[in-house]
Queue: 2 jobs
Job 1
Amino acid sequence: MRMIKLEAVILAGVLCVVFLLWNVYNPLPNDDAATHRSSSNPVQLLAKATPGHERSPAFAGRSLYLWGDCHRNQSAANVTGFSALPGYLQNFLYYQHCKHFPLLLDLPLKCGGAARSSDVFLLLVIKSSPGNYERRQVLRETWAEERVHRGARIRRVFISGTTGSGFEKLQLNKLLELEHRRHGDILQWDFEDSFFNLTLKQVLFLEWMEDCCPRAHFLLNGDDDIFAHTGNMVDFLKGHDSGQHLFVGHLIENVGPIRERGSKYFVPVQVQTSESYPPYCGGGGYLLSGHTAAVIYNVSKSVALHPIDDVFMGICLAGAGLRPVSHMGVRTAGLHIPSPKVNPHNPCYFKDVLLVHRFLPHQIYIMWEQVHNPALRCWNN
Ligand SMILES: *[C@@H]1O[C@H](CO)[C@@H](O)[C@H](O)[C@H]1NC(C)=O
Ligand SMILES: *[C@@H]1O[C@H](CO)[C@@H](O)[C@H](O)[C@H]1NC(C)=O
Ligand SMILES: *[C@@H]1O[C@H](CO)[C@@H](O)[C@H](O)[C@H]1NC(C)=O
Ligand SMILES: *[C@@H]1O[C@H](CO)[C@@H](O)[C@H](O)[C@H]1NC(C)=O
């Protein structure tokens, strides 16, 4: 009798451990048995389950985690006119030199490990603030679903910082941790997720990519409120070589910093003296090759952070002697619908685009269903 009880206790214990591990390990969509194999390495499982700064020995070699707190640059306050700047710009100048922050939630096996990351054709890199749970949830079920489209593997990561303070911050961090566990698609760093820190987020992502996903062929870099036709993107990208330069989107040229204090994009002379920006693509979303991502990351190490993230990408491209180009299918400024009388959400306008900016979560959900409806009839068919 005693023996049976003991066995039952042991069995229950084993089941518990198995259950815990199973929960911790977020399975990738099962289109690839090999990715599953490599992600079930127990050492990595445990490392993945440990958010925070301490890393398991398996990861001690990764420099990403070894950066301490970055201190504010007090001399920034000595710049002429500093005290008259809005607080967020003062903060930007105080912390402009800080390019490394600790990773709170990591996905070391998102691409099957660095060596196998060439299996990933299109990596969707979506900027998302912690509170945007509904947006992430809709994207997971629509255009950002991890899948294989015409033989091309699509993977998804949301990139995030922290927001709020005190209890609210803890709650939002908990939310991301739960999503990370359940969906395996959150990268989070310990910095304030604000508009003027988007460039920092971008650079931290490129740093992660070099480490964990260096051979992914192409990236979609975008916001969490876009409608991205990821199927069309794959078709478009298949005609390109990921080892060559590619950077396409909604091209913006011959513009410079906005000097009006009230604007969201206000960039004072204390941040940039020059009156012009190099050509860049609107930050709602753009496509780039793995090659170009690596070049931009390399250049970013020696360039001062610019508060506007899409402009910063343009600055890095220019630094490497490269140019972004325009693609008609990328409409980060919205879609021009010919007449106010027609339904602006007619799926026929969207079935051939690559990307359109500013959709509400429910609109994305509806549009994704509609453009994939085989019964959809448009003018040209
Ligand atoms: C700021 O400028 C003042 C005077 O020019 C100088 O005494 C001080 O050391 C400077 N502070 C920093 C932190 O550089
Ligand atoms: C700190 O700010 C001053 C004034 O803008 C600048 O000259 C200096 O290079 C900055 N230091 C660092 C470490 O970025
Ligand atoms: C960027 O994040 C750092 C670290 O959290 C923070 O100190 C700084 O104020 C933020 N900068 C802006 C402009 O929000
Ligand atoms: C990285 O940038 C440095 C200069 O900033 C350049 O010398 C080097 O060739 C670049 N490396 C790559 C791989 O692009």
Job 2
Amino acid sequence: MTTMLVTLFVSAVVTTLAILVSTSQTGYGIFAPPKIAGSRDVFPSAKVVNLTGASGPESIAFDPSGEGPYVGVSDGRVLKWRGESLGWTDFAYTSANREMCVRPFAPELEHVCGRPLGLRFDKKSGDLYIADAYFGLLVAGPAGGLAKPLVTEAEGQTFRFTNDLDIDEQDDVIYFTDTSAIFQRRQFLAAVLNVDKTGRFIKYDRSSKKATVLLQGLAFANGVALSKDRSFVLVVETTTCKILRLWLSGPNAGTQDVFAELPGFPDNIRRNSKGEFWVALHSKKGLFAKLSLTQTWFKDLVLRLPISPPRLHSLFTGGRPHATAVKLSESGEVLEVLEDKEGKRLRFISEVEEKDGKLWIGSVLMPFLGVYDL
Ligand SMILES: *[C@@H]1O[C@H](CO)[C@@H](O)[C@H](O)[C@H]1NC(C)=O
């Protein structure tokens, strides 16, 4: 009897899911992205800077003289924006082997072409540090070109999914994340659904060239940002929707706590000149994501259903593309939430970089940057 009830229940769930999956593109009803109180739906008025023949500008950086932005794109290049008249030019790359790297979006070639995710300039030297998902931590000189690898393993374990970094120029160290020891970038959704907890947060000492693991067991270690006074460093844990704070100095040095909990899946985090932080959410956390992450039976069911990866991504992100950016104070309070609730212009954003009264907005999936005037 119980078995029959379970079977009935499971078939009902499967049928419901199948219907939800096959119907409208405009949102999946109860699975739709949740509302955030006080958020402002202002991103539909953002401008866009198209990437010609490229896609997925995950991270954004300006060089020490304020030129750029520079972005890392899906085909493995780092591009530089030189304004309306000159457009985009190639700046750097992480793989010397680029004959096959001609399509804007080809995840199956990422391990050959490279996938530059996190970008940061060293302000003194003008060198560009790159966290490449497949090739570890690299550095390109101020003139760009082929980046050279700095480190590809820590404490005997090779990086599998290097993701983001920040530089402490005074201490001469680089903080960076290796998202998972098991899943690679193109398997990011599987890493989240399986609640993979093999992510690491690592410190690279530039003079000794030694990499030390500071935190391990992280559930999708992602964006990294040092505080303005360098007393702590933030590490995004995407799957748990949390930002962790590791104290570097003061009475709590060496300990960690939760800096912020967010209403969605955070990607990169960037500090503005006031010392506040902008966090880009890949998507808000709706019912489908909640059920998948808390109910094992639901996740197992979902992974067994004949759903294509793009469909699964769509369900997980609420069926309706959207964009959400959260500004946090230096102590982790939410100061502002800016959105494109219906994805009219921006979708699946990965980073928000504030510069001179503008927000430059990246995305792992879109073929353009967003620019929003504050
Ligand atoms: C960017 O590309 C889109 C789609 O191809 C086009 O409609 C739009 O006009 C372009 N925008 C700019 C600013 O070039």
